[in-house]
Amino acid sequence: MKSSERPLIFVTNDDGVQAAGIAALIRLAAEFGDVVAVAPNESYSGMSHSITMHRPLFVSKVSQTDGVEVYSCTGTPVDCVKIGFDEILGTRIPDLVLSGINHGSNANVSVIYSGTMGAATEAALYGIPSIGFSLTDHSPAADFTASVHYARQIIGQVLAMPAESLAGLCLNVNIPNIPQDKIRGIRVCRQTRGNWREDFVHRTDPNNRDYYWMSGRFYNFEPEAEDSDEWALREGYVSIVPVQMDLTDYQRLDTLRSYLGE
């Protein structure tokens, strides 16, 4: 990218094109470059890396102002990245992809369920650096002031990194839901080990059909691990976890070859 050019920044989310979090992220992205945003027409939270295969996708332009284009898509967050790259951007290649700002944490193993991070990891598969931002507050009225402050800092630093460090970079950023002046800084850390255990509420509808509402709780296997994202958030830090899509368990390769063959 020439120094005289403004970066092209692609923005998406999983809470929907009308969510407050993506509006804040679009405004922030416009400080750094030209913006194309493609987001789901409604909430697709928890969709992970799912794509739409058996129904059509409809895309409509929501708004266009100087340097900012916003589109709505009837698909998942990953659909938004795919159709955005292949159809809306045309020959343009984004310098950075931003996903969020999510209403709710995507720390720990939540990253594997997250539509926010599904979109970010899809961009990384194209070799485009990406950042998923999440605030640990599910409220529709969440205050994104601190999130924007730290996202501005992180975006600026990522854009200043050398090109050889950026290809396929994917960052999972979570911001604690505390006042900005209480945040202690940023920690680069690893994903916390643990799992989600579900609670199902069993009910019956007016037609006497059984149905369930699902909720759950995260069980932290290592609450005192100071290099983990959950510890960082609990202690008042913004957590940054670098994420990769290669799911190979390299530590088991040699053992499995000895049992199962090369």
TrEMBL record:
Compartments reported by the entry: Cytoplasm
Protein name: 5'-nucleotidase SurE
Annotated gene: surE
Primary location group: cytoplasm
Role summary: Nucleotidase that shows phosphatase activity on nucleoside 5'-monophosphates.
Cofactor note: Binds 1 divalent metal cation per subunit.
Broad EC category: hydrolase
Native source species: Candidatus Rikenella faecigallinarum
Binding positions (a divalent metal cation): D14, D15, S45, N102
Pfam families registered for this protein in UniProt: SurE (PF01975)
Catalyzed reaction equations: a ribonucleoside 5'-phosphate + H2O = a ribonucleoside + phosphate
InterPro entries given in the database record: SurE, SurE-like_Pase/nucleotidase, SurE-like_sf
One Gene Ontology molecular-function label: exopolyphosphatase activity
Survival protein SurE-like phosphatase/nucleotidase domain sequence ranges: 9-197
